[in-house]
Amino acid sequence: SRTDLVAALSGLPQFPREPVARLGSPVTVLLREDHTVRHLQEQFRTLEEHPLPVVDKKGRLVGAVGIADLTSVLWRPDTGGKRDLPQTTRALDVRIASFMHRPAVTIGDERNAADAADRMTRAKVSSVFVVEADRPVRVVGQADLLGLVVGAARAQLASSGVQDCYVEITGLRGSSDPGLLADIDHLVAQGLKRIAHHARPILFSLHLSPHATHRTADITVEGRLHTDFGIFYASQSGWNLMAAVSAILEELGGQLRREGESRRKQARSRRRPAADESIDDPDLERRIRAATGDEA
């Protein structure tokens, strides 16, 4: 299972030390203690991926709600025995504060992937919240850590080419158009072919995070690309999913192009012969002696 893999890999010295501030996905849904189950109706798909954070009035993390917490409310019997107290509250009206688990499992934004893996293993959870000043900013799951390990391992392979790039797309709803994933995959394949002109792509992770609002259909798309040059990141938000994915691939391609140019420039400067520092300049030497008070 993912839990066993993360537990086994986290203790290895080769486990990636990528900062958690660059892993996982941004927190786009915040729950309050006085919210009810009714507020979670539109978030069932997100709950299948990771718990949702619960914050107080100042935005500080006080707990979390996962699938197990929610099912304890939704699957309870509507009727009981003669000695059971009557239920006066409908399941959809139950306040989140009454069934959330607390405290939420967190990790500081200054920590790295190995720390996150260790935290998950010790707390026996599948994800942790990255906090900054007690406020949840990102959520990192086991899949994020395993993807990072895969990327680090594939970087050591001698093979090359776009056909060796592993692509991971997360965040699509189960009810999405079946052709949408194929369209995204086609767009990603085209983008990776262009990127391959500058560096060898190894692992590309694309995460989709719908915004927590009913008024717009905005979505945040985050891309993380592992290459033989290192790891590169890009993010886009807007209502047009395909445009956001295309913009991310263009941005990543631009980053790699600039990185390649920088490396070539450094290589040329190393090959360039050093200037002759032994050229005599009596006038310069005289001025230096005068400035340092070392005149004969």
From TrEMBL:
Ranges of residues in domain CBS: 20-85, 100-159
UniProt cross-references to InterPro entries, sorted A to Z: CBS_dom, CBS_dom_sf, RHF-like
Pfam families: CBS
Annotated region (Disordered), positions in chain: 256-296
Endpoints of the signal sequence: none
Protein name (database record): Cystathionine beta-synthase, core domain protein
Taxonomic lineage of the native organism: unclassified sequences, metagenomes, ecological metagenomes
